[in-house]
Structure formats: structure tokens, C-alpha cells
Fold this sequence. Notes:
alpha/beta, Enzyme I, Chain A, domain 2, TIM Barrel, 3 domains, 8-stranded parallel beta barrel, 24 helices, binds phosphoenolpyruvate, binds magnesium ion
Amino acid sequence: MSILINGIGVSGGIAIGDAYVYSREQEEVHEYRIPVAQHKKEIQRFKKALAEASKQLNEIKNKIADDTPPDILAFIDTHLLMLEDPTFNEGTIANIKNFSYNAEWALNIQSERLVKVFDEMDDPYLRTRKDDVLHVVRRIQNCLAETPDHVPDPTQLKGRIIIADDLTPADTLMLQHHKIAGFVTEYGGPLSHTAILSKNIGIPAIVGARHARKLIQSGETLIIDGSQGMLINSPDYRSLKHYRALRKKDVARKTLLNKLKFVPAITTDGKAITLHGNINRPEDIRALKNFDDTGVGLYRTEMLFIERNEWPDEETQFKTYKRALFRLKGQPLTIRTIDLGADKEIQDTIDQGPMAHNPAMGLRAIRRCMKEPELFIPQLRAILRVAALGPVRMMIPMLTNIEELKQVQALIERTKKQLIKEKVRIDKKLQIGAMIEVPAAALAADAFARQLDFLSIGTNDLIQYTLALDRIDDEISYLYNPLNPAVLQLIQITINAGKKAGIPVSLCGEMASNPQYTRLLLGMGLEYFSIQANALLEVKHIINNSNLSRLRSKIKKILELQSTHEIESEINQLNQREAEKYNH
Length: 584
Ligand code: PEP
Ligand code: MG
């Protein structure tokens, strides 16, 4: 019987192949006590397991190194580094010494502690990093139990769809090396390393398909649709025919998009459009460079603060920004000063005073920085210093009025003077821009544009503040629509203000990464997009097939409409017509 299973699609594309159910049961971990005289021996046993786990990972790395780019191999390095991390090792050893636990139990207790720390994090990406802890612990536990590393028979893997409980990055890379067609896991979320990895290497993948191993048998034919997160087993002839046709189309599309790597984005009537990437950490530049040799239009620096759970010092920041700049190899880096508060928060270290009722409207981003200049100045100093080494720009989030901007500019000037006095090399002409993400700033965009070197529209917040919608509240997400005429007017005002003042205006909110809005934004006059790395080629494809002057007149008419639904329907129709015309 054919059944349909839903999970979370994490890497698009259609795969059709026979199932390979990859079952490995984890040995249960038991607690027992070790006599004090044997502690040393038990610690040795634990260290031996660590060394064995590291050996296994290095063997996998060496085996697949030839056909795997170094940036993708780095996912295994994350696990190798964890094996050396003192919080991991020393904590476990302390549990053996202090409580006489056996190594397995000591490790179990330590891993529970670490998982709890990750579980309590607000940031969804960091929360998922607990998966890495669990993967590493599982490997060490297997080494302690001296069970061999479960590796499926490589001769059986080519063209198969793997069904597993969970896959570590090392498993995923190993399986891809054996040319599997796709994979499905019962656990894991969209932000797990395995999900990110599958997207990077381009195999269709679904995670979170609960009970898949119970419902599917090895050898059954499977179809997986990685975009929809859907899996069908033993499909009938009609489904097979349908999905084979879809797969063909999908492969043709990927081939077409791949040809656009490193090609400039230019409309058919010759307008060059800048496409930059958004990053959260220097390591994200790897993914960006897979798609294009381009710069960064938004580096959200708060990750550096959130991951450390404290405000890092000037030197740490300088080194981190320098790493990002050097990885870009001459392409520009736009560093956004910290945007902490509301949905992005550091725990523990800051006395936040009484809980704000509306944190998104409270002491957030530049407001917080100006309230605590002693914490902000190290970031300003680090950015001014790194800008002396290459093309760096500084971007200020959440400005609401010109007085605030003037205060920030005065602080930057004072910081520059101090650095010059200390004879530190800086970029005295560092370009400074503002994020336009509050309606008041959009309405004052002319004034901002006269004072600054560039503007960047943050639609994620602009929509939130214009429509009075909490951007992370699921209950009202149906109202969260970039096509609301009020939002579009504010975007248009900002683009026009930039043109009038002769400065670039970019859009770095999620709206720019959605190909559905590319023609709309081009028609509104946007010439600079800063987007997610995996949207680069799709957006470029649309740009390279668009005639700007024709789009402008069409969009002008659409913008006269008063209702979100009317605008949405017109944009959909325009997209469909244009796509058909260019055989999109
Ligand atoms: C935005 O608000 O659109 C933006 C890019 O900033 P963030 O999502 O980091 O608030
Ligand atoms: Mg924002």
C-alpha cells in the first residue's frame, strides 16, 4: 500500500529510488560506580574512546576529501573540535573523579548539562546546536562500548534513498560520497547541521519524518519531494510518471541556475544590479562563495555576542571582522552594529532592569548601544580599525530620528579622534549607513539620505512596525505581508530618497530573498539586493531576464492599487506572464 509521510523539507528537489533503511540502535547507558583506585584507569578508558572517535572522524574525512570541497568538510571539523573541548572532556573527567561514575554515565551527565544550556537559548539556530553535542556523545558512547562504527554497505548505496533516525554531518557526507539519491530522517530540524549540509551539497532531503523507519521497508520504491517535505512509498504508476517529469524539470532548472554562478546580474536593457549576501558569522561566507563571488550587504554581528553570551572585547571583535573581510577577498563587507533586544537577546550577563512590556519597541539595537556607550565603543573601534584593511562599511540598525543619528555620528567622531590620538590605523572616511526599518525613518528618508553614505531597508522590522505585528508571533503571521500598500509606500519613499541624494539604497530584509518580489522591487527602482546565499541564483535569473523600463511602468500601475490582495494577485500574474515569456 502506498502511504504519504510528511516531514520538514530542508533541501529541495525530487528524488526517486529504492529505500535503504539505516537502523542502528544505541546501546543503553547504565550507571555504576568505579572504586577510587580505578579512577585513573576509567579516565584512561574515556580518553581512549575520545581518541578512537577522533580517529573515526579523521578516517571519514580522509576518505571523502578528494571529491568534497574543504568548506563542506569543515562540518566534520566542528565535531572534531568538540572532542577537544574542555567543557566536554574535563566535565566528564570531573564526574568520574568526584562522583566515581563510570565513563559512560559521567559523559551522559555532562552531555545533559550541555544540552540544557543549548535548550535554554532563545536563538533557534543555537538551540539546534545541541544536535551536534548529541552526535558527538553518541560516537564516544559507541567507542566506549566498543561497538564498531555503523557504516552501511557502500555497494548498496548508489541511487538509494536513506531512511535513518538521525544523521550526523559525517554520516551525511559519507553517504553522499557513495552517491545516494536523497535522505529522510526521523529527527532533526531545519537548522540542524545535517539540514544545512544537505542544502549545500544539493541532495533532496527531509527531516522530522517521525516513524519513517517503521512505515518503510528497505527495497521499496520511494519518491521524496524535498521542497514540500513529502515522501511517498510504493507509488502507483501515475504518481511515478508525474514525479519523474517534475524531477526532469527540476534537474534542468538546477543546471540552468548553476550556469549563472559568477555571472553578473544585468537586466536585458543593460542595468547592472548589485546582489550581495546576508551573513551571521564569517563562516557563512563559505556558502555565499559557493553561489557567487560577491560581497556582504548585511553582517548581523549580534551572533558573536549571543554565542558568547557576553559583549566581546574590541580585540575579539576586530579579529572576527578581519576574518570575514579576508574571506571576502576584496569584496565589500557591510558590518551592522549590534541589534540586541527583542527577538535577539543575550542571557544572564546584562541587568535588563524590569521586564519591558514591548521589547521590540524598547531598549533595542542602537538605543541600547547609546545607553551603554562603554559597551558599544569597542565595536565602533573594531569596525574603524578593520576598515583600514579593506572595503568595509558600517550600518546602524533601528534609527528613528535625525537627533539620534547625530548622536551616533558624534560618538563615532569621538571614537575616531581617540584612535588617531592613540596612533591606531583606521579608515577615517569609513562609509556609514542606516537601516531603514521603522516607519518614522522611512518617512524621514530624505533627511537620513542627506546625512549618510547609504541606506538599507530592513523589511523584516519595517513590516512589523508599520503593521503593528510581532514578527515572531505565529498567531498573526497571516497578516504579515510585504505587499501591504503602506509597507510598499515606505519602501518607495526610501528608494526615491536615495536616488535624490545620489546614494545607494539596498534592501536586506527577507523580502529581497523571495524571488516572488524580485520584479516588483526592480520595478520600484531597487538596484541593490542583500539576500540569503541560496536565493542568489534564482533572483539573478529573474534579473537577467527582466526588462527594467517595461517593469517600471507595470509596477507603477500595480502600486496604485489599494488592497494587499489585489496587489498580490497582480504580482502573481505578472510573475507568471514574465516567467512564461522567458521560459522561466
Ligand atoms: C530587517 O529588519 O529586515 C533586518 C534585515 O534586520 P533583522 O532581521 O536582523 O532585524
Ligand atoms: Mg531589523
